[in-house]
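Hi R.,

Here are the chain sequences for the assembly we discussed:
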Amino acid sequence: MNEHTPHPESGGQPSRSDRIAAMLEEQILTGRFAPGSRLDEVSLAEEHRVSRTPIREAFQKLAQSGLVEHAPRRGVFVRQASPIEIMEMFEVMAEMEAVCGRLAALRSAEGAVDQLRTANAACRAALEAGDVDAYYVENGTFHHLIYAQSGNRFLEQEASRLHRRLKPYRRMQLFLRGRLAQSMGEHEAIVEAISRGDAAEASDLLRRHVAVQGEKFHHLLTQLRPDAAG
Amino acid sequence: MNEHTPHPESGGQPSRSDRIAAMLEEQILTGRFAPGSRLDEVSLAEEHRVSRTPIREAFQKLAQSGLVEHAPRRGVFVRQASPIEIMEMFEVMAEMEAVCGRLAALRSAEGAVDQLRTANAACRAALEAGDVDAYYVENGTFHHLIYAQSGNRFLEQEASRLHRRLKPYRRMQLFLRGRLAQSMGEHEAIVEAISRGDAAEASDLLRRHVAVQGEKFHHLLTQLRPDAAG
DNA sequence: GTCAACCTTCTTGTATACAATAAGTATGAA
DNA sequence: TTCATACTTATTGTATACAAGAAGGTTGAC
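And here is the predicted structure of the full complex:
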């Protein structure tokens, strides 16, 4: 499944507004548009050499995914999720990954564990190379594998959707001292649990693994803005 | 949260296209538009006395929620979810409700259990009156209460979203002999588990309670179309 | 000097005109 | 008769024109 089309038109080409929405999403997540800032229809239309119509369609898609907020008659604004809301999303992510892990342990097919080990090896290589960006990518691959191995396509899509939504907040934590190595160890324990078919253990480990991210995020917040603890 | 605005514009009025989307959704779920049928932009525009623009916006919202499918250059069609996909959604619903139940048992505030008992009493009254429609409504109230008592607003919204999506498939089962009484008993066990703060039990009971619906759905399917078992 | 009301201007929401493509139909050849 | 091809028609995608509302500035009164 494409990273940027939550509900792809089955088999068809992504529409123009899909591409624009994907681009805007990327630009929001990478910081070109700051939270709270307004997205201007006309300037974006000029930039993309289209009329306002496809831009407005793209805005709607972004609004549905929760990335921007549509204020009637005032425009669309990059949404600033509150710390509480972000913590809530991390909690849901933790629970969803726990479910994926449980189902994966129960159902994982031939070769599935090998895929996980391969992905994990790539994580370790990135870690040892000190390449944070590469670790980030390989880590994503690892988690998406588990979503897929749940054997439930719908769950896989929903988990991927939330994973993408949390992208900017997850990324912050990679720079916390020692977190990468710790994360790496957790990955290995998770793979072992799945390979043993130990559903309860896989579930618990994944829940903790992701919940820690929420806690780290909270920790970062309180350091930066002690009043914004949530 | 309004039943028909998945991502409400915070505090603002629902837009015209929101209202149209809600109306179309209702009409799809209640069978005015059969699965697979095409929604015509111009006739709907005439019917609602607007131009094609708001209709198209409504279509986009429906497409994002998965209710219709957008075939580029061909139109939007009422989506016929495959049996497999519906089963997958039921499984995810079961897991989400299990999570809600677990969190509710851990966190439920003063008076929360009373609310559940009240909702359950309404269910029982409907059951004893033999009023299937009323039971359906009160049952929905009961489940939404549990979503809310998870203490996680984001989870509450996601669970409500999926609940609504499964609406037409859940409704079928109410007419299965004895299912209502069985469901009622499960509700009571769930409330007791939550009132005891027994998170694991509440979680398991809810998972089973919802998973049974998926199984009943599957059962109905195989009776109707033995080849469509999934 | 300050506040309020009005007016200007900018932006969005909607309608409509136009362009492009897909489906259906008719025609002709094999 | 059947199949293929071209044409017609209908429908979507996009652009643009127009309407309506909100923000901000200006002017006037107190």
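Chain A touches chain B through 31 residues (CB under 8 Å). Chain A has a mean pLDDT of 89.

Let me know if anything looks off.

Best,
T.
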